[in-house]
Amino acid sequence: MSLDRVIPCAGAVVFDAAGRLLLVRRANPPAQGRWSIPGGRVEAGESHEQAVVRELREETGLAGTVVREVGTIEREAPGGGTYVIRDFVLHVDDADALAAGDDASEAAWFDPAELSSVDTSDGLVETLTEWGLLESAMPVIDLTLLASGDAGEIARLRSALHDSGFLYVTGHGIPAEKVEGIFAIARAFFGLPLDERLELENINSPQFRGYTHLGNEYTKGVADQRDQLDVGPEREALVLTDSDPRYLRMVGPNQWPASLPELRIAVLDWFEEARRVSLQILRGVAMALGQPADFFDPWFDADTHDHLKIIRYPGSAVRSGDQGVGAHNPAPSS
Questions:
Q1: pLDDT digits (tens, 9 = 90+) for 129-162
Q2: How does pLDDT run across 155-195, given as a tens digit for each residue?
Q3: What are the structural domains of the chain?
Q4: What distance, in Å, lies between the first and last C-alpha atoms of the chain?
Q5: Neighbouring residues of 295: CB distance < 8 A, sequence distance ≥ 6
Q6: Is 106 an active-site residue?
Q7: Distance CA 146, CA 18 (A)
Q8: Which of 143, 181, 169, 160 minimizes the C-alpha distance to 91?
Q9: Of residues 43, 74, 76, 106, which has the active-site annotation?
Q10: pTM surpassing 0.70?
């Protein structure tokens, strides 16, 4: 990579509810006339997440929400330098609003099975396949339809839980700025000096809340390749006796860095949003099982102990089989 001219870019990987991939035909170099994912340069003052949402809107007319970052690629730029492109999975609520614009002469949805016959930009299909995005599109469930009792959406949820085990949700009602904000504040926390983060080590918390440094947790005897901050409901610790159930020790406060007070506000706000969405999904699960939507409500009241992790996977030189929990490796096989 050329060190004298790095051009930051962002790309959008978007699938519709049918599992089709969104592509645009480039009107200008590079890759003029070829199909690629929407995306472009990060403008001054933008984050990559803001840039990819803007580029998606400009090139396709679609409003998207960032779900996660999937990888980074590099391409030589005309005239010298290197495009460093961070790609993100996004979801859109109205796939039918597709309309090409800006650098896109056309925009269309493609079934992954037909991509081999499409003139795509160099390395696109290979990269998306390597990242596991084209093996099988993950189901997308609309929580708005689910909450309305839509029989088709309930059936799709049942199928996703039985056949895939993983799913994305749309219609969750979390504003895009909150999604971008939680990623930004997480990066700010993991950017703090290590000694400040270690002041919050979870070994200092009877509730096992706080920070765990890279490699300090183990899964199946192998060091995990992640930094993390564990957070629970913000409550006062209980005064307990030896006769009280031990699980009540989990009730108590979180640990927060003094130098980043906005972390507490943002994370607890996200905590409440995540709990609300989780309960929406749980009500959908109840309906998918043929039960009333409120079937599980008695077990998930105001005293429920919820748990949230803010995680950074910094990457590692170790092979996937030589790590515990790490990026794209939730649990190693036995």
A1: 888 787 655 677 889 999 998 888 898 899 888 8
A2: 889 988 887 788 888 889 998 889 889 999 999 999 999 99
A3: 6-137 (3.90.79.10), 172-322 (2.60.120.330)
A4: 38
A5: 286, 289
A6: yes
A7: 17
A8: 169
A9: 106
A10: no
